[in-house]
Amino acid sequence: MRPLLLLTGATLALTSVLALAQDAPQSLLPPGFDAPEPSPTPAPAPAPAPRPAAQAQSPAPTPSSAPATQGAPRSVSVPVVQGEPASGGAAASADASGTAGLALEELPSLEELERMTPEEFAEILGAKPEFDIPPTARRATTRVGLISEEEGGLSANSLSGQNGRLVRLALAGNRGRLVSRWGHILLRRALASRLNAPRGLTPQQFLALRVELLLRMGEVDAARAIVQDIDTGDYSPALTAAAFDTYVEAGDMTGICPVMTTNTAARDDAKWDAARSICSAFRGSSSEALRQLDRSLSRGTMPRVDVLLAQKYAGAAGKTRRAVTIEWNDVDSITPWRYGLATAVGVEPPAALMKEASPRYRSLIALAPGASLQRRAAAADWAAGVGVLSSTAMVDLYGQIFSQPDMPAEWSARAESLRDAYVASAPAARLAAIEQLWDGPSSEQAVYSRRVLTAFAAARLPASADMAGSAAPLVTSMLTAGLDANALRWAGVVDPGSEAWALLTFAAPGRAGEVDGGALNTFADNDTSEESRKSAFLVAGLAGLGRIGEGTASRFDDRLGMRLGSATRWTRAIDGAAQSNDAASVVFLAGLGMQGSSWKRMTPRYLYHIVSALRRVGLEAEARMIAAEAVARA
User: Fold this and answer.
1) 556 near 16, Cβ under 8 Å?
2) Higher pLDDT residue, 567 or 138?
3) Do 180 and 317 belong to one domain?
4) Which of 59, 86, 297, 434 is the most exposed place for a label (fewest CB within 10 A)?
5) All residues at 6 or more sequence positions from 284 whose CB lies less than 8 Å from its CB, including other chains
6) 162-218 per-position pLDDT tens digit
7) Domain end point (choices 305, 332, 356)
8) What is the Cα–Cα distance from 366 to 388, expressed in whole angstroms?
9) Residues of the domain holding 111
10) At 353, phi and psi to the nearest 5?
């Protein structure tokens, strides 16, 4: 019996209502969202975890009931089996409460113990592994996030008076694709802020909703950083699921291992089991982990390519080496599991599959450090346009391309053009280099991404009448990076009523006085955009910022048919949040209203309410940039 106890000790030590920018006054919120909340009912007790067959006759004793509360000292650092005799009595003896221990004949063999993972062994004993974290090192479940208010985040108590059902709807109903780059940036900032949960949502529920939305937005790095900001012992099943999806999409399977250790029964599916095998491999049991994955392959519990990718990942651990060939012939789609593990093991999925995959994978490729520079730069033509990459990140990426001597000619030439846009001696030569970068792509998203790439180069050009013909795209480029002061240098060069003039009406912070109505008429008369959308967005943005009077707004409202004054549940919700000075809810609802694949999905009425609400809660800079972007991209 003593060897068995020693082996036991050694084993233990191995430790989402779619809200598109609508074309008609439809409600964004389902009926009853603002009805009084019903009294909460107690959550049903969790179903007991299944026991192995060996314990069918004599179940293991129940582990300690409630986990330690936040800040309370924990004195247990290894799993404890209640009812175990203090002085080494018979294994089948019962404690005073009648709880039976493991019968001697039910104990696994030494060979079986050697093959068990720590989680499986803890499950046999009916104990949950706990980790002795000093009280000073534990983190509170409140205010989880990356950015405090002092660092530019939103107020931690912004949601203190908000209905949790509304917040859940705004986050779960957002599919992650926004028409506005600045809207994406603002929503990411809000989701990453250190916020207290609203009433009706637990901190874990609120955090899971935020992480899931960040993943849908293609912001896997931010999602991973947030799930790492809470102790794994405080994870709920929903948060465990969100964390699992995050680490899979990031290709960081070892990152999920601590979560799986403390939440062994959070899920019961083939991918969870495969991830457990990978974690076992990286804890030193690579041979048994590969055998478990072999069994999954033979039983067909997962598609063949998914198991092969897991085997290749697990094979990187330990001394067990195995050549695994990834076969894509019968694969008809890319999933987060396939993308994440393939990227992690250095396998590039077929281009045909990636072309048909969701566009958000381009954002993941642009952020992936293991992807080639060509793949990252091609993906950046999408990621910068949607807001995942900043102008600085784009310049850094092309700087790496410029420093590589063996890059294909297409990419080397593009990097050379960006360099000339900064360092060419004559302003005309720098402008020519900038325009060469603009002329390359064909899609609207890629064109706008190139505006992001050239933002700081455009800001270095002198405001000159000789370049007034390029003023509108230059101002657009500068405003993609928020360089409003640089853009305003062109105010004395551009003609009133031109597109560059229209963009500059938003650039000035704290503008005094109303915008010239005559110049506004000139812009509307010369507007050649579809259904005069540029004019409609210009008026809606200026009205939301309070830069035109009610009479002017009403006159253009009638002329352009914008219906700025009509209301829906969504407009009432965002206006109510602004009236309560609830910046977080305003941003969440603005993100809900800005969903879509292009600015054609946005209406002037929605833009008016978004800009107005953001201004009222102190986010006027973001409101100005969103309004300017609407005019530039209409």
Assistant:
1) no
2) 567
3) yes
4) 86
5) 14, 317, 318
6) 999 999 999 999 999 999 999 999 999 999 999 999 999 999 999 999 999 999 999
7) 356
8) 9
9) 1-10+70-138
10) -70, -40
Task: Give the H/E segment covering residue 379.
Answer: helix 373-386
> Do 114 and 213 reside in the same domain of the chain?
no
Q: Which of 411, 410, 453 is nearest to 435 (CA)?
A: 453
**Residue 633 and residue 386: Cα distance in Å, rounded?**
12
3-state secondary structure of 599: helix
- For the ranges 75-84, 231-240, 412-421, which has the lowest average pLDDT? 75-84
Residue 100, SS3 per DSSP? strand
Same domain, 280 and 350: yes
- Residues 107 and 162 occupy one common structural domain: no
Sequence-distant (≥ 6) Cβ neighbours of residue 227 within 8 angstroms: 207, 211, 239, 242, 243, 246, 247
Residue with tokens 């507007």: 527
- Length of the chain counted residue by residue: 634
- Whether the Cβ atoms of residue 541 and residue 506 lie closer than 8 Å to each other: yes
CA distance 267 to 240: 9
Q: Of the candidates 118, 138, 158, which is a domain's last residue?
A: 138
| Tens digits of residue pLDDT in 404-451 | 988 999 999 999 999 999 999 999 999 999 999 999 788 899 999 999
CA distances from 60 to 173, 180, 563 (A): 43, 56, 68
Q: How far is CA 159 from CA 198, 446, 585, in A?
A: 5, 36, 7
Q: Kindly state whether residues 77 and 172 are assigned to the same domain.
A: no
Total domains present in the chain:
3
Compute the distance between CA of residue 447 and CA of residue 438 in angstroms, rounded to an integer: 6
Q: How far apart are CA 271 and CA 432, in angstroms?
A: 52
CA separation for the pair 130, 144 (Å, rounded): 22
pTM beyond cutoff 0.90: no
